[in-house]
């Protein structure tokens, strides 16, 4: 190897070392930068978490203050009642002690009697409040409460010193403690009562009226209904289901149907069958006519397309089921006006369409050839009365031929 080659190799080695050193320094700087970014991100994350924690604590403090404020407002009547009660009990108890000790009793006896009256009234008051919360009768506790207060008021009234009006003040002072506590209870009861919405109270009143009507109109069913509810565990049977079962037990039929109603329905069906037979119309044709009358019912809520406003049935027949062939075949402009609410436009000379002829044939088949203008209109065939009359005559002529 020549000297030139030696120095060239050495120069290349030094260049490679410098390049490797630069790469190492670059990688080291990159690592330091990443570490610094990670530290900065951690600091920012810690700050954000600390801020969120401060916000949560702030919200908690606000919620606690709001709850405390609401509780104070909610219990403000209790605080006011307690203040008024203390101011009422202290003078009442003092004058009771004075009156009892002035009657020649020992001081300890006077204290016991006075405390007995006041504490007895308060024991009855607290017990009555608990009974009211638990849904138990409160009148025994109210009776004992007002009885103790009345004894204390009598003592203060009869032994009041000074002016006559002072006797009334001291008597009122004996009543004051229990009165103010009762006043608080009345206010809270009114709040609880008004907490229910008007819709709920209206529904409850309507349900109570409905229950009274059931008891008044159907006493046997109502008695069986109460027996069914009483026989089941509380709250396990639906009231309406119990009423339906009670109705079936008493009348043996669906709700609203009594033996008298069932007999009336059977009699009406028999009368209708008799009327159809007298009119010379088959039962199948009558059934089809009733179906068409129900489908093409008047918009004004009448009994049928050709129904009369004076109380006629679907075919112009009286509502009691008596009919005849003339009323079954009623036709004309009045029936058309009741069906459509307008007059038929006159189109003389209009040719009969195959579609209308086919519909008219179906109507004739359904009514055993007894086709009419009114039945064609009910079947959905449009046109003037003259057109429908020609269509009717055409179908009848086909039947004869």
TrEMBL record:
InterPro entries: DUF2637. Residues 1-62, 192-213, 298-356 are annotated as: Disordered. The chain crosses the membrane at residues 76-97, 103-127, 139-159, 165-183. Keywords: Membrane, Transmembrane, Transmembrane helix. Residues 316-326 have a biased composition (Polar residues). Residues 328-345 have a biased composition (Basic residues). Residues 7-58 have a biased composition (Basic and acidic residues). It holds the Pfam family DUF2637. It comes from the Bacteria. This is DUF2637 domain-containing protein. It comes from Streptomyces coryli. The lineage of its organism: Bacteria, Bacillati, Actinomycetota, Actinomycetes, Kitasatosporales.
